[in-house]
Amino acid sequence: MALPDAPRSHGRVRGVLLDVGPLRHDRDYRLIWGGQVVSSVGTNITRVALPFQVYVLTGSTLAVAALTTVQLIAILAFSIGAGSLADAFDRRRLLIVTQVGLALSSAALAAVAMLPTPSLGLILGLAFVHASVGAIDQPTRASAIPRLVPPERLSAAIALNQLNFQVASIAGPAIGGLLIATIGLAAAYAVVAASFTASIVALLAIRPLRPLAGAARPGLQAIREGFVFVRSQRVILSTFAIDLNAMIFGMPASLFPILALDVFDAGPTGFGLLAAAPAAGAFVGALTSGWITRVVRIGGTVIVMVAAWGAAITGFGIACILAADAPGVMFIVALVMLALAGAADVLSAVLRGTITQLSTPDNLRGRVTSIHLLVVTSGPRIGDIEAAAVASVVGPQLSVLSGGLLCLLGVVVVARWFPELAAHRRSLRPRDG
Q1: Are 236 and 360 in contact (CB under 8 A)?
Q2: Where do the H-state alpha helices sit in 183-260?
Q3: Residue 193 above 70 pLDDT?
Q4: What does the pLDDT look like over 136-155, one tens digit per residue?
């Protein structure tokens, strides 16, 4: 008697799981996504190889901090200009150039790693070049997606990109550590250089993505036009504001070491689990994001997801406080709260990205995307500073708890300040089979 309900139940499950429609229906998106699966793993291998190389070479955490600073400066310096390039030139051709640049800089890092005594200055210089090219690649790639899929499949495409990012964030560092331990640092960089071949081949196979009518010449005036447009679009501004609120007040990643070692007494393994929990939750969130493609009140759902992030971080803070009496149990609760936060964050990211892309004309999409990436890049780093500064005054437990509560308060403030966000809706066109 249960048989008639089985197809309905199966349909409900499919409706929750990640929508792979863009991979089925959109050839060029499928190609570019498949190439990025490989190259993203390579990019994340570099994320662990560079700080490892610098620390082994110098034995100094200050040198590692200098590496991070150099990379951040490159991102801040080049990402804004990159948006005007993406709006002025064929995005396919520009992506080919950036992928070749990333491959060459990785090959150069491999060559430097083979030197008996590599120069720290040379490594930092190559890291700057690699991060600069990546800063051009990101807004170009993101602004190309709406040209590869129809509007009704854009949310699904962004969710697939998020799944790719989360998988690479987990697999890349693990593979990188294994490669460094088995075949050495230089060979690991060589593998990274080779990984970009997949993306280059995919890009060569897709159609050109030339700028549409009305494209602006790259330069300061074009950059200014991007900022003027964002300022005039309050719904886009609201997505930036609510994301900054979540990241600045509710991002306690800088406190994970002290929480693992001194609060939960979980040691280095516990630190690794705390760091991995949000990514694991984000992976599950992306994998079960199929329902997002059917959301009409998209702005209100963003508010709900960011509030869920703040509530989960608040729960994490409560677990930190209660860990004094039951560290083992509260550590498990803390991991669950962080995983829930990660799931809410990735769903919010998909929805915010959809709003930004659909609210921006194609001739401005590169510049607006570059501003969006600046917000996404700077928010967590400011949050790390805020969490550490508050912890130095009231302790790490209260720093986490207060951050979660301030995030929830900030959601209310942003929703009141930008009523356009809660009111924002999208029309859903009929989807292909």
Answers
A1: yes
A2: 185-205, 220-232, 234-250, 256-258
A3: yes
A4: 998 899 889 999 999 889 88
Q: For residue 78, name the pLDDT band (cuts at 50, 70, 90).
A: confident
User: In sequence order, what are the residues at sequence separation of 6 or more whose Cβ sits closer than 8 angstroms to the Cβ of residue 65?
Assistant: none
CA 345, distance to chain mean position in Å, is 10
Cα(318)–Cα(401) distance, integer angstroms: 6
Q: Is the pLDDT of residue 3 over 60?
A: no
pLDDT-derived band at 13 (thresholds 50, 70, 90) equals: low
- 8 A C-beta contact, residue 155 and residue 351: yes
Q: Which residue has the tokens 């074009």?
A: 222
Q: How far is Cα 127 from Cα 64, in angstroms, rounded to an integer? A: 12
Q: Are 143 and 366 in contact (CB under 8 A)?
A: yes
Q: Given its phi and psi angles, is residue 219 left (phi above 0), alpha (psi -120 to 50 degrees) or beta?
A: left
Q: Contact at 8 Å (CB) between 306 and 359?
A: no
Cβ proximity of 347 and 305 under 8 Å: yes
Contacts 24+ apart (CB under 8 A), 325-331: 327/263, 327/264, 327/265, 327/266, 330/264, 331/264, 331/266, 331/270
User: Do 411 and 303 meet the contact criterion of CB atoms below 8 Å apart?
Assistant: yes
Q: Is 325 left (phi over 0), alpha (psi -120 to 50) or beta?
A: alpha
Q: Is 251 helix (H, G, I), strand (E, B) or coil?
A: coil
**Residue positions counted in the chain:** 433
255 close to 399: Cβ distance less than 8 angstroms: yes
Q: How far apart are CA 131 and CA 148, in angstroms?
A: 26
Whether the CB-CB separation of 54 and 63 falls below 8 Å is answered with yes
Counting beta carbons within 10 angstroms of the beta carbon of residue 300, is it exposed (0 to 12), middle (13 to 18) or buried (19 or more)?
Answer: middle
Q: Across 45-156, where does the E strand assignment appear? A: none
| C-beta of residue 358 within 8 angstroms of C-beta of residue 60 | no
**What average pLDDT does the segment 104-128 reach?**
94
Rounded to whole angstroms, how far apart are CA atoms 91 and 44?
Answer: 23
Locus of tokens 């301030």: 406
Residue pointed to by tokens 């990333």: 102
SS3 219: coil
Q: Is residue 403 a contact partner of residue 386, using CB atoms and an 8 Å limit? A: yes
Two structure tokens written together for 142: 């993101």
Residue 31, token pair as written in the block: 């190609």
Q: How many CA atoms lie within 13 A of 254 on its CB side?
A: 22
The span from the CA of 360 to the CA of 146, in Å, is 10
